[in-house]
Amino acid sequence: MNYLKKIITLGLIGVILSCTSDFEETNTNPNRTNVGDIKASGMFEPLLYNGINAWQYYTWFWNNELIQFTAFTGGTTRQEHRYFIGDQNWQNVWNTYARYTNNALHMYDLSVAENDKSLQAIALTLKVLYMSNLTDMYGDVPYSEAFKVREGGTAEPKFDAQKEVYLQMFNDLETANSLYAENPVFIKPALDGMYGGSMEQWKKFNNALYLRLLCRVSGRAEMNTATLITKIINNPSEYPIFESNADNATVQFSGADPYRSEFANTNENGFTSSGRKLTEQLIKMTVIADDFGNQTYEDPRLAIYGKKNPNYLVNGENVWKGTVAGCTEAEQSEVDAGTSWLNTAVFCRAEMPASYMDFAEVQFILAEAALKGTIPGGEAQAKQYYESAVTASIEKWAELGVFSEVPVEISEEQINTFLTSELASWDAATNKEALIANQKYLALFWIGMEAYHEYRRTGYPELTIGRGAVFNDYILPTRFAYPNTTMATNNANAQEALTRMNGENDMKTPVWWSKQAIESDN
Known about the structure:
Blueprint: H1 2-17, H2 23-28, H3 40-66, E1 70-72, H4 87-113, H5 117-138, H6 162-181, H7 199-216, H8 225-234, E2 249-251, H9 268-273, E3 276-278, H10 280-286, E4 287-289, E5 295-298, H11 302-305, E6 306-307, H12 329-336, E7 341-342, H13 344-347, E8 354-357, H14 359-372, H15 378-398, H16 412-420, H17 432-443, H18 450-458, H19 484-489, H20 491-500, H21 515-519
Antiparallel strand pairs: 1-3, 2-8, 4-5, 6-7
């Protein structure tokens, strides 16, 4: 325990807390730990545990507000759901993804020096995990020249076009896959709170991540994603992927300090009830009501995601109610009355596990690919993948139902009922592409920024922009803007990137892989 605390102090205070500008400072900060000061294995635990907690914080703070899972309507000090987002926010998000990438590369350098191929492979997987989120949030970013100052590289790295970033990430994942194929031994499996040092499972995660990124850019014909996806699914021995929830990239916390989940010390008031409520968007996608407004059926996951407002005076009918994302200040008190909350009893446990990626997401990716003809099988195969995806998501959340204030049990019969309900029925859906995207959106609840990324890629679900979303001219942010520090210290390269993206440094310029960019031929 004390050893890990020491590693966190030595390895991350210099690298993480001092990295408060951007790539240049991350590379040149004199307080960071130098290669050789600690072993690669000493970088692993902070990278895994602190990384997933940052992941969880962002899903709560950013993703859920942008994508209308929740809305902070408890006041005007926080207005992300109205798109009141500025430079400090852009800077913090940029720094977070940059510093975890830098930590992964630091671990890679150490592992190369120690000839530890297990950590070399893991470092590349984690590098891509974080860099993919950096580029997906901002568009064009430094990749080929980033983080290389200590090797004599430039302090003003060029911004690679997003297409080039993705091609380089594919190369890194291929390299990692080759390293995993050498069957290296993870020397200290007890350090690995996700896979217990299993290289086979890390390899599956690597290739599942590969599928995620191929899906992300599948709207761009020049990326040849159909060939690459087919190569992966046709070669399971070379490119194994998730086969069940047992393979989920989920970090397990013991609950003992410092192995505690992000919200372990958060009470219900601070976590949700004082301001952050479930939205009408989430409720309408998870609850069926009759013509008289009586709620007759609900998604079995909903009572695990959230809880009904227990105050009889504002919710005497004991129903699920969502607040209005993007509501005006004048509307706020009215739309907030009786609204449902996040389920603190589930999410704020010290042992609450946290996921980077799930088997359900892989199955949704394959369902979409089969439906579009990217892989064989057509609609019949797409249905199988889709129902497997939904089932996997429900089963994952069902394991957490026991921790709810009112324990939730979900039977196989209930899952089958859900799959035939009007919420999720494949056969009843007239727009099956929308059905896949909408259920994928729900399955991505509490997984980083993935629902936000997927919304920009697909345009689903159909979100309603509230009358109070004035701070970005009623446009759901298409990206985060480059921070002022980056614009000041690496202006020429940043300006070149903006010119290439055909937009301003704002939250209205679409990223290259997005539906908006593709449809506008941007």
